[in-house]
Amino acid sequence: MARVLELIIELAEYEKAPREVLISEETLIEEGFGPNKIFDTIVAEMDNEIVGMLLYYPVFSTWKGRSIYLEDFVVANSHRRKGIGQLLIDALVEEARSAQAKKIRWQVLDWNTPAIEFYKRINATLENAWIDCTLTLS
Predict the structure, then answer these.
(1) CATH no. for residue 52?
(2) Are 48 and 5 in contact (CB under 8 A)?
(3) CA within 20 to 30 Å of 37's CA: 23, 55, 64, 67, which one?
(4) Boundaries of domain holding 113
(5) How many domains, the chain?
(6) Has residue 132 been placed in a domain?
(7) Does residue 134 lie in a domain region?
(8) Is residue 24 part of a domain?
C-alpha cells in the first residue's frame, strides 16, 4: 500500500491537487484488506516494481444494477505509453464481469487530454451533460 499511496500522490500532483490527499498508508491497509474492506486494487508490476494501479469499489445503479466505480487509475509517469493502462483496464473489466457488474463509471478532468484519448480508444462514453457534486464532510 505504500507504493499505491505514492501513485495516488503522483496522480494528485498531476491533477494539480496534491494537498487534497489526506489518506494514509495505514488507512489504505485498514480499508482495503480484511473482512470489512471497502475497496479493491489491481496493480501492474514491472521488474518487481508497482508501476500502475486501479482503485475501485462496488456501487449500485438504480438503472443498471450492480456496478463498479473506478476511483483512481494511474500509471507512473515513467511507464506510460507501454500498454500498462490497457492491461489494467482489461483486468478491471474482467473483475467487473466476474462480479456481474453492468457498468464501470469514473471521472476524468476535462483538460486531461491523454486520458480522454485513451478512454475514447477503449470505447468509453464520455458524458458532459452531468455535473459532479461533492459534499465534503469534516
Answers:
(1) 3.40.630.30
(2) no
(3) 64
(4) 2-121
(5) 1
(6) no
(7) no
(8) yes
**Diameter of the chain by CA atoms?**
42
Quick: pLDDT tens for 54-63.
Answer: 999 999 999 9
Q: Which residues are catalytic?
A: 119
Amino acid at 92: L
35-93: pLDDT as tens digits: 899 999 999 999 999 999 999 999 999 999 999 999 999 999 999 999 999 999 999 99
Per the listing, cell 494514509 goes with 24
DSSP string, 28-93: HHHHHSSTT---EEEEEEETTEEEEEEEEEEEEETTTEEEEEEEEEEE-GGGTTSSHHHHHHHHHH
CA angle at 135 for the pair 52 and 111, rounded to the nearest 5°: 45
Q: Is residue 129 domain-resident?
A: no
